[in-house]
Task: structure prediction
Amino acid sequence: MPILRLCPYIHHIPPIRACADGGGHETGSKPVSWRPKVSPQLNRWSRARTIRSGRKLDRSSSRTQTLEPNHHPPPPSLPVDPDGAVGVDGGDFSSAKSIYIVSDGTGWTAEHCVNAALGQFDYCLVDRGCPVSTHLFSEIDNREKLLEIIKQAAKEGALLVYTLADPSLASASEQACKLWGVPSTDVLGPVTEAVSTHLGVSPSGLPRGATGMPLSDDYFRRIEAIEFTIKQDDGACPQNLARAEIVLTGVSRTGKTPLSIYLAQKGYKVANVPIVMGVQMPRTLFEVDPKKVFGLTINPLILQDIRRTRAKTLGFGHDTRSNYAEMDHIREELEFAGGLFAQNPAWPVIDVTAKAVEETAAVVLRLYHDRKHKCTMPRISKRY
Result:
């Protein structure tokens, strides 16, 4: 039976038994006083969450808890903390919903999945003030750490989202969450199982980048792409544009640099070239394959707000004479850039207004791969 296969992982977890006289005698279900062993690290995390939520720390509460006579002992297969849903240091976490993100690697996958999911609840999180607190626990590679985190999640009533490549850790997490009533979601498991069934082979059970695993070619390709992209930022080294896989161009503050870095982290060598009135564009930009070049544009009102904020960051005051954030100058720049794009109709023009970096990157990569594989696509000059 499938449940029996999960049991061996749980039997290795030693039970915690409360002792009344400190002499190691089991007390069963009789009332006892005891001092729970609280992790200093989880203690600090709990205090930090309390401070971030604006609540006052309660340092007067005693750490000594008393088991009630009607307290039922847990099954012996997992340790339990009998102090219920009271947070460490007596903190009350009822004002914010907590989400714990647990991974035996960096946690990047689970963290981005949670952030993408939270994006579907902006109407609540922003407009109606539904407080949510997220915390990432990365490099969790043993059962003791994992159970300590799940124990704390049970106290706070938190949701547990995990990506655990090790089957024993994933199984222990599932069993502990069921036992302590912690809602949980395994992000990696269903996808891994589906891929395993499709390929007909078993997964390694090791997190990405685990110690002892050889670094893949993909890793070195990403590192090389990031180094190249940083050197090519803001029009630097125009003689290397031919080596770039993707070239971004647009007026100032259209998000060329963050988009370049994001694409580089995915393994693409990216160069970006700013469009500035009165400054001649590098000749090599028009010599590279036009299928590599992507134009960026933005709504002038949004661009003005961005530039005003940028000007304040740079220390420009109201008495500073600069047309950087003036609407007339912004419109002239965008018209100049539009004329350049019109002269090069093979460059797709992407409107980044109200788009996150990830959304713009998705459009760029879709067009890039469509062209690379010569897929049928709409008119190149269309704005996306």
User: Anything to note?
Assistant: The chain has two domains: 2-17+39-55+75-199, 217-372. The mean pLDDT is 77. The beta strands are 33-34, 65-66, 97-103, 132-137, 159-163, 184-186, 246-250, 270-274, 293-297, 349-351. The longest strand covers residues 97-103.
